[in-house]
Design a protein that fits this description.
single chain, alpha/beta, TIM Barrel, seven-stranded parallel β-sheet, two-stranded antiparallel sheet, 17 helices
């Protein structure tokens, strides 16, 4: 591979500079993306391999990124699971038949990726051809807890009342649901690896609503099951938000890389995690709305906290926000490379 810096960092190996990619790097802050969005719905873009490939490549063509991530959504497996999904304007995802009863959980189907998400697998093939071994390609999936919460709540949530009602009120069926989701998520990621992705990331964006003890009892075994199912095939990034108080527990779930949000210091997090795993992060995405001087100062702070040790991948603590200035994104990527080379 022409540039394997990101892969080496995932393996906790020394690199000449700090590799950088950005969550949601293909998306709504780019005019090229918005031009396509005028013609197609979000799901149409995800389900049309040629368009998904084009969107994946937009930031790669615009910035000097060290990895691409396939344009998709964590909810794409839902249709194959028997769960209806659409994206409402200005509302985000809407689950048409939320999972609320034991019968609903029993009815969930374990997906067959070749049958249920063939468009995603084809998009991966197209992107791999476009990349031509220039940089690695990242595949991804929603972690079992985040996916379970979506399908139970029916969309986004502030308090996760419905999900936690099943978790606490009917733990037997909660565990059955989570085991099903872990099984199908493992299949989903392995299918992506079969088609050529070089790294996979597990997104647990909602895990921060849980206490450490509840995470251990109700979530950790299923995160671990997913990661174990792909272990040894490609590096795995275990990413969550709001979980800085129990990083040591997250590590028990597995992963070659632990993703950090911006609510923790990178140096202190590495001390707690140990240096046998790599870390990814952890710039606050809202800083990209500030001035170049402010952004550069924060980049220096994060890279200095990494202290030149192997295994740091620069990223945001979550995805790029709608309206982020494109010039600031380019400057960020270039400056991470520039400053880390000096270091």
């Amino acid at each position: 591979m022409e540039n394997d810096t990101f892969l080496r960092a995932c393996r906790n190996e020394s690199t000449e500079y700090t590799p950088v990619w950005l969550m949601r790097q293909a998306g709504r802050y780019m005019k090229e993306y918005m031009a396509l969005k005028e013609k197609y719905s979000f799901l149409e873009m995800c389900r049309t391999p040629e368009i998904a490939c084009e969107v994946t490549m937009q930031p790669i063509n615009a910035f000097d990124l060290d990895a691409a991530i396939i344009f998709a959504d964590i909810l794409l497996p839902l249709e194959g699971m028997g769960i209806g999904l659409h994206f409402a304007k200005n509302m985000g995802p809407v689950i048409e038949n939320p999972v609320r009863t034991r019968a609903d959980i029993d009815a969930i189907r374990i997906i067959e990726p070749e049958e249920d998400v063939p468009y995603l697998l084809k998009a991966i093939e197209l992107v791999k051809t476009e990349l031509n071994e220039k940089i690695p390609l990242i595949g991804f999936a929603g972690a079992p807890f985040t996916l379970a919460s979506y399908i139970i709540e029916g969309g986004g949530s502030k308090n996760y009342v419905n999900a936690k009602s099943i978790m606490f009120g009917d733990p037997e069926y909660w565990h059955k649901l989570m085991d099903k989701i872990a099984t199908l998520t493992g299949r989903y990621l392995n299918a992506q690896i079969d088609r050529g992705v070089n790294v996979v990331q597990l997104f647990d964006s909602w895990a921060g609503c849980l206490s450490p003890d509840d995470y251990v009892e109700f979530v950790l075994p299923y995160t671990k099951k997913v990661i174990d199912s792909v272990e040894g095939r490609v590096p795995v990034i275990n990413f969550s938000t709001g979980t800085g108080t129990y990083l040591e527990i997250l590590k028990q779930g597995g992963g070659d890389v632990i993703g950090l949000d911006w609510k923790v210091r990178l140096d202190e997090s590495r001390e707690r995690l140990g240096y046998d795993v790599a870390v990814q992060g952890n710039l606050d995405p809202t800083l990209l709305f500030s001035t170049p001087e402010v952004i550069k100062a924060k980049v220096r702070e994060i890279i200095d906290q990494a202290d030149g040790k192997p295994g740091h991948i620069f990223n945001l603590g979550h995805g790029i926000i709608l309206g982020t200035p494109v010039d600031n994104v380019k400057m960020l990527v270039d400056y991470v490379h520039e400053y880390s080379r000096k270091g």
